[in-house]
Give the backbone structure.
Amino acid sequence: MSDDMTSCLSSLRSRLPEIESALHAFTSSSAQFRIIRTINPTKTPPKTLYILDSSFNPPSVAHLALAKSAVRSPGARDEKPRRLVLLFSTHNADKAPSPASFEQRLAMMELFAEDLHISLRPGNSSSTQSSSTETMASPPTNRPNPDLSHPSTDEAEDISIDIALTTAPYYTDKSLAIRKATPPPYPPTATHIHLLGFDTITRFLNPKYYTEAKPPLSALSRFFDKEVAGGENRLRVTARPYDESDPASREFGTESEQKRFVERLGEGEDREMENKGWRREWAQSIEVVDAEEGVGVSSTRIRKAAKGQEWHDVGRLCTSGVAGWIRERGLYGEDDRGVKMA
């Protein structure tokens, strides 16, 4: 383990009480959104806010691929300056809560953000080490555009990464929670772009999550309609690499089939979806980009590797800081579902 890594893990160990305190303060409040930490803070108000929302149980190279793809190859409409939010919901729509593990996930999110920031520096193609340059939270007062595909040195170094909490369980409510936060952490005019893998968009569009609306998918107006959402929201969906030998991969089809799925939504060819409340104009707010290396790596796979003490695999599937923390803390040793963590 490098000296930098040792120092970073030591720093995080000493910060665990602070993380626990921040988590308790949030869950005990009526707030729906709060930034608890910022890596590489800048005060420049963003015009584009990339939001990577996950259970981070644990953060993986799949999360890294989604974030790096957006920052290094932004869409043609993604205006500068840009900022990234790693968002963790304390109320997951699919999984029973496991409060004892939340502080550990936040700790791993900090390490992941450090590793991500290092990997975005000019000349770095991967994350190999984490650093100890954490700073306290400082909130700011189709296809990649060829001219923007390789951000300038200044932008690559200066993009801020916020680590934030929300109580909103659904994507349709998370951007609303951010915009309603007081004091406002970001300009109300900032465009929110949620970074998803293709497997996640299938859940986003699943009517079972919107049974309170009639028809159910009409609930998506809270996300796609600017007047209702309070601003512009979009989805950037990274296609899942196709692997014939992987049953999960076959479920979503080839990359061209994944892109065609969204095209059909915009062309009105999916009448079943429209009967459930989908509006074809919403597809204009969904961009599908090519698969990146690492996309498709599941957190379940990492947890099983950690339970079996297969540290080489954990190191391949996580960034270095996260892998080091999992091993040091013995996370997932008792329950590879991630329900009980040290």
Observations:
- Residues 127-155 have pLDDT under 50 and may be disordered.
- The chain has one domain: 3-329.
